[in-house]
Amino acid sequence: MFRIAINTRHLAVTTALCLATPVLFFSVSLSSRALEPDDKGQANQGSAAQQEKLLVDENFSNAEALSSQWNATTGDWQVVDGVLRAKEIEAQQHSAAARRIVATDDAIYQLRFRFVNSGEALHFGFDPAPGQLKKRGHLFSIVVTPTQWQILKHIDKNRPQEQPNEILAERKSSIEIGKWYQLRVVTQGKQVTATIEGQESLQVSHDTFEVKKPTLVFRCFGDGVEIDDLKVWANASSGPLGAVQPSKPTPRAADDFPESAFVQEESDRRPGPVMDSATIRAGLQSHDRALYIKSGWITGPYGPRQFAGRFLGHGTPFQTKDGKWWCTAFFNGNVPPVSREGIETRDLGDNAQTINEQGVTIVPLDVRIQEEGQVYIRAKDPAYATPGPDEAQEFTHDA
After folding, report:
1. Residue 21 burial by CB count (10 A; 0-12/13-18/19+): exposed, middle or buried?
2. Is the pTM above the cut of 0.70?
């Protein structure tokens, strides 16, 4: 039995892979929550301690009308079949408008929506708190239609010529009538990131956005927009949400490592050189995944890198008493989590992205020694089990 133990004062956990062949397991970049896999080998999502404080958790399944925290000013707002349905009243010549009271600063906002009948557009946005800005009017909105969506900075009604409406980011969309979509908005200082399930995310920054916001502003156009599962978390994390601070790898001589940093085995081999920076940099070009290499010493020499799992960056493999192998994974992206749907073939190379929610995920692993003596490690959940199209390296080691 051989053991690889990485002993460092900067880590609270020591990683050990106890196999008949020495293996170093390492991971790059991103990942999230958990436990027990289901019958398809998928990682189940469970509760976990989070940095965010839940401020609003509202669905309308047991409601007959809007609560006192809502103020509908125009349009028709009714709870119908367990969801909130809004539509314009033609005689008012105005969008259906309502506000939901909740005071926020940096926060995460999430809801489901769908267009029904002749629904045309949904605006989800904010007002600045009184006294925060020398401005009259809304702050900004996420504007969604079936064919496009945008982040709109609203006009200053006191200075309409100098500060008109301004589209800060815009993309085409393919929103189907009658289909539910999840909208997630993250505000962090001046930065706003918006994600719609199945659509490319939007990210903007503006000096006026770093203010307190007393309400959520909903405006619906046409004859039917439905809203459900409204959640708001106060975002207590520091810095841009999920931003990864890059660090430069520093090669170290073998004598710099503590004795526990090496495989304990009887061998006449001596520590080889650490990986050169060019090789490390090539490996980091790909997004969030875990790799492993066959090795006798933690400083090498190393065998070829093998793919262990996508979205497992910074993960730690471990074995439970029943002999099963697992890997931890943690959210660490520049944008909110993307949908799992079709993730195996989706290219995420334009930004640091992950399917993992904030918290911690435990993903089941397949760990075994093959007949030819090769070590095989692979995530069981299909969403984690294959490299994405954005993967910069090619891997040939399969089961």
Report:
1. middle
2. no
